[in-house]
Amino acid sequence: MPRAIWNVEGEIQNELHPSETVVWTGQPSAWETFIFRRPDFIFGVIWVIFSCELLSRIANGPAIEKPDGIWGIILLGAFPLVGVAFVASVFFDMIATRRTAYAATDRRLLIVRNLIRRRATTIAPTAINVLEVKEKWDYSGTLIFRREEEGDSVKKIAFIGIPNVREVAKHVKELRMSAKEQAS
Predict the structure, then answer these.
(1) 55 three-state secondary structure
(2) Per-residue pLDDT for 62 more than 90?
(3) What pLDDT shows up at residue 68?
(4) Which pairs with CB-CB distance under 8 Å and at least 24 residues apart come from 127-132?
């Protein structure tokens, strides 16, 4: 059975509370998603090249001792797969942009994805800890509104590749300020 056409507004409406008002909705751009995830892509490509070079040296070099048994082969075969997984995750995210919706309401920010399974992420106004705008010449861009430190890395939560990014940033800033006013 083919999947029904994905309705952005309908997906957002399913997540709203009864008195909640939508201020803005949008969808990410596949190209901007690639640009945002390019460090993972570059790491994956470099890892694949490095591991294939290593495998080539082991297979052709008489001076290097070859691994014995099935576990040695599995271990060596896993090296390129790590790089392929990084590259594949970037392309998976690019494909997922067709079934991703963003929304800013008068109470929170929403990210709804419905590719393999439906997942809705809610960002409360008090959880907005940064407001970083990366704007392009055509006024589209990426709006980063949350940074989470995970060990040595930083996870960024953002609206990626949206039109009129500064206009959306104004709404998010107002939402953040209203939460600060209510807290004090």
Answers:
(1) helix
(2) no
(3) 63
(4) 128/172, 128/175, 128/176, 128/179, 131/169, 131/172, 131/173, 131/176
